[in-house]
TrEMBL record:
Residues 150-297 form the Tetrahydrofolate dehydrogenase/cyclohydrolase NAD(P)-binding domain. Keywords: Amino-acid biosynthesis, Histidine biosynthesis, Hydrolase, Methionine biosynthesis, Multifunctional enzyme, NADP, One-carbon metabolism, Oxidoreductase, Purine biosynthesis. This is Bifunctional protein FolD. Pathway: One-carbon metabolism; tetrahydrofolate interconversion. It comes from Arthrobacter sulfonylureivorans.
Length: 299
């Protein structure tokens, strides 16, 4: 009997369908803004020609077109200097047609990423990664009414809440301490409105299996294919698979896979597919940040 010969016992945290629902809500909000003469616009800054990054940026512009957001695109060579790149950000900061923008990560090694993120006007920071907006998250003031939240952490929480998964009092294991996902996710989940108890695991964690056995919810964002073993999960755990790795399957074809072993589908109560789980939610939350920035700018 192989893995797929029996139906999975877990339910699917369907990011694609949830993102489609959010996009239809945002389309309504964009119409309201347009009726007031405000046209939201998302800018993207892409440096170099990494195929994955190009695909993500293309997807962002496709999403914008779907909900009625205008697109501004700056595709730049990977030979660009720090100063030249900062000058592009100055232009976007000053452009009234650009409500919000992102700089696609990762950037080439010769570019100081932190300096670039600091250069973004915090009011136009569609990724919620400017230090002021991350600081507001620490201070517990970030959110739709006042400042943007980082897209993937927000997407994870929204995906759970829209499936009525209770987080208050639950032990949530976040695997990965990166600045775009793990760290801000820990801050978001420990807000009083969510009230989870968070364990943040990383490469220095001594016994990941022991942490997995205790966790009610696991959010895997390490970017290491299948590092979360089904046998280590607490039966009935809720599992979000955030990590994205490109691997080759048996016939040499490249495909995307996540951090969680496929067998988890027979142990978890809920599991997000990868692809089709948190990725589409990341894209939807980016659009939400642009719409919210336009709504704030409209007063
Ligand atoms: N400036 C940013 N850079 C990066 C971010 C980010 O949020 N802001 N996150 C990732 C890349 N990313 C968005 O930019 C992203 C990753 C994955 C997906 C997605 O929809 N994935 C699909 C599968 C895609 C595939 O087949 O390759 C899925 O999960 O269904 C969207 C956006 C790093 N950089």
């Amino acid at each position: 009997m192989n893995l797929y010969s029996t139906p999975p016992t877990s339910r699917v945290l369907d990011g694609k369908a949830t993102a489609a629902q959010i996009k239809s809500e945002l389309t309504e909000r964009v119409s309201v803004l347009k009726a007031k003469g405000i046209v939201p616009g998302l800018g993207t800054v892409l440096v170099g020609d990494d195929p994955g990054s190009k695909w993500y940026v293309g997807g962002k512009h496709k999403d914008c077109a779907e909900v009625g957001i205008e697109s501004i695109r700056r595709d730049l060579p990977d030979t660009i200097s720090q100063e030249e790149l900062e000058a592009v950000l100055d232009e976007l900061n000053a452009d009234p047609a650009c409500t919000g923008y992102i700089v696609q990560l990762p950037l080439p090694k010769h570019i100081d990423t932190n300096r670039i993120l600091e250069k973004i006007d915090p009011a136009k920071d569609a990724d919620g990664l400017h230090p002021m907006n991350l600081g507001r998250l620490v201070l517990n003031v970030g959110g739709p009414l006042d400042s943007p939240l980082p897209c993937t952490p927000h997407g994870c929480v929204e995906l759970l809440l829209r499936h009525d998964i209770e987080l208050a009092g639950k032990r949530v294991l976040v695997v990965g301490r990166g600045v775009t996902v793990g760290r801000p996710l820990g801050l978001l989940l420990t807000r009083k409105t969510i009230n989870a108890t968070v364990v943040l695991a990383h490469t220095g964690t001594l016994d990941l299996a022991a942490e997995l056995r205790e966790a009610d919810v696991v959010i895997a964002a390490a970017g290491m294919p299948h590092m979360i073993k089904a046998a280590d999960l607490k039966p009935g755990a809720v599992v979000l698979d955030v990590g994205v790795s490109r691997v080759e399957d048996e016939d040499g074809k490249a495909r995307v896979t996540g951090d969680v072993e496929p067998e988890a589908r027979n142990v978890a109560s809920w599991l997000s597919p990868n692809p089709g789980g948190v990725g589409p939610m990341t894209r939807a939350m980016l659009l939400a940040n642009v719409v919210e920035a336009a709504e704030r700018q409209a007063g």
